[in-house]
């Protein structure tokens, strides 16, 4: 039997994959460049969190998803508020991303001291000044899986801020896109 036949032989037993641990998965996934957002909720649940686990989900209905750890303050805030905003950060907004990623920062309204923002018309969630774009969303589904919940939001309104490049996160660090050469 040649090697091609052996590969197609259904009696050949597949290897049993080893369990991938969280540290190894984090290491491998760090090589996937992502954009950086700040998810916000408003009104009595005022809170913000830097996140890169965010994606467009559907054009019809217009929807997005974000993934939030069960232990994160944002998890309860978003669940309670039922509406949220996603601020897509520009390359110059790394300090803002670091601020809202800092687990030691003061929570509540004080976390927004010195941060320019306005409440979203449909959500009351902070729309951060200088963001490249923002989306206001209504929470329409939540799916718990492992140590995170995938929150799905129907997009109520969108807006664009200034021009520029987005802030990236790759290899455990913030970065900026390299200028393109034409």
TrEMBL record:
<dbReference type="GO" id="GO:0010181">
    <property type="term" value="F:FMN binding"/>
</dbReference>
<dbReference type="InterPro" id="IPR012349">
    <property type="entry name" value="Split_barrel_FMN-bd"/>
</dbReference>
<dbReference type="GO" id="GO:0042602">
    <property type="term" value="F:riboflavin reductase (NADPH) activity"/>
</dbReference>
<feature type="compositionally biased region" description="Polar residues">
    <location>
        <begin position="1"/>
        <end position="14"/>
    </location>
</feature>
<dbReference type="InterPro" id="IPR050268">
    <property type="entry name" value="NADH-dep_flavin_reductase"/>
</dbReference>
<protein>
    <submittedName>
        <fullName>Flavin reductase</fullName>
    </submittedName>
</protein>
<dbReference type="Pfam" id="PF01613">
    <property type="entry name" value="Flavin_Reduct"/>
</dbReference>
<keyword id="KW-0560">Oxidoreductase</keyword>
<feature type="domain" description="Flavin reductase like">
    <location>
        <begin position="29"/>
        <end position="176"/>
    </location>
</feature>
<feature type="region of interest" description="Disordered">
    <location>
        <begin position="1"/>
        <end position="22"/>
    </location>
</feature>
<dbReference type="GO" id="GO:0006208">
    <property type="term" value="P:pyrimidine nucleobase catabolic process"/>
</dbReference>
<dbReference type="InterPro" id="IPR002563">
    <property type="entry name" value="Flavin_Rdtase-like_dom"/>
</dbReference>
């Amino acid at each position: 039997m040649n090697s091609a036949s052996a590969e197609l032989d259904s009696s050949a037993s597949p290897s049993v994959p080893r369990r991938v641990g969280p540290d190894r998965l984090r290491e491998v996934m760090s090589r996937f460049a992502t954009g950086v957002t700040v998810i916000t909720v408003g009104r009595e649940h005022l809170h913000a969190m830097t996140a890169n686990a965010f994606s467009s989900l559907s054009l019809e209905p217009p929807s997005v998803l974000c993934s939030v750890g069960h232990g994160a303050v944002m998890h309860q805030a978003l669940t309670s508020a039922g509406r949220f905003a996603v601020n897509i950060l520009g390359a110059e907004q790394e300090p803002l991303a670091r601020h809202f990623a800092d687990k030691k920062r003061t929570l509540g309204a004080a976390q927004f001291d010195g941060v320019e923002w306005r409440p979203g018309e449909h959500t009351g969630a902070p729309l951060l000044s200088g963001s490249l774009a923002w989306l206001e969303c209504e929470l329409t589904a939540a799916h718990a899986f492992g140590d995170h919940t995938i929150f799905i939001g129907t997009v109520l309104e969108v807006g664009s801020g200034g021009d520029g490049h987005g802030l990236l996160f790759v290899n455990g660090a913030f970065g900026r896109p390299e200028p393109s050469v034409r």
